[in-house]
Amino acid sequence: MTDCKKINKIINSADKENTQVEFKQFDILNTKDGPKKFLHEIVAFANKYGGQILIGIKNDGTFEGTKLTDSDKLKGTINDLIFTKIRPIITCEIKYLRCNEGDVFLISIPKKEEIPYAYVKLSNSEIINREYLIRTSHGVRHVSDRQLQYLFLLDSLDYDKSFRIVLPFDEKLNILWNIQLPPDYTFILGRIFANLPENIKNQISQDNHGLLYFTLEICPYALLESFSWIFQQHWNLRIEKSHQRISDRIQILEQINNFQQILSNFPDFPNDAYIKQINFDHTEYFKKLGFFSKINVPYNLEILIEYKKISKEIQLIMKHQEFIIQFKFYKPTGGIYLGGTHPQLNYAQNVELYTMCGIQCDFSIKFKFPESDFFEFKKYINYTDNIKTIIKENWDYDRFIIQLPNQIHYEILDKLNKLSK
What we know:
By secondary structure, the chain is an alpha+beta fold. The protein has 14 helices and 18 strands.
């Protein structure tokens, strides 16, 4: 698609101007306050999501139609303004387009990477004043002191982490209880496999990839159950240790609106999912296990479970107007083995390890910029910190085994067990 076609697509869209698109006419730089307003737009875009300014498009989305005689001069003027009036220095891509309907300058503004941008006033090459601005649904706004605080911190709130789920099974497809594993492997996943109907276990065991695909598809539900019992009374708390009693682990608990999700609210698996192919009614089964009696979450948090057939990937998405939490579960490319990683390897061999199953998970948290209620926003930070704590303590296989005694201790323990028989 050519740039002119892209512009036509933008101006013909339903919302036209939005938090990432702004229209300006060519005379914007010729008015008294025009250059300042123009640079305010650039700073505001950069401090939010980045965006595009289209010079040569009227507010109603029509082309101004002006044919420029010296596009290079205008481009130079724009570059000089950006270079002298915005700090830190920002690099914007500027394209001059001669479309059939008229001339357009397309200015692409990148999102800030570290510290926020400011419109500055200089005196003898020294900055004597900074104006911080943000693009909101209501247009360009100067930021308040509290907004400025989050503007500097926002990137540090985003989070990306990969972790493994590694499960050792016996011949009956029960997770080995005498191999030390992260708590929710046995507490949640162990219950799921231990109580499976025999016909389901037989189908899984007879399929070369059955155990992997079954585990992959139940992982999002197991993770939600982990959140469910941690937040069984309230989501608005700060966890010290996830497996302590509620009275011990809660540092903060305030009475605010609770919002509950239940299993029946989640979308069902598509027909091509493995669980559907083996006729496993996961909803009814989880109810029998007592899962998801209630999940307390921030108000208006939407929980989605999405399945991708081709990549055999499943995602758990927790979407809110202020943040999004995403878990992507998939088959690891290099395989998963107990050997070489778990210090209880020899002991595991003596308890008839049947097979291993490994799942890779990419975990991310992305925050949006808070436009109004910063006290509520701080609670969302606490909530996502709690999610990180739950993953770290209850699900991250590699982190868990690093904290175990080394292999020599387990070899001594194994020899002692043999001598005592």
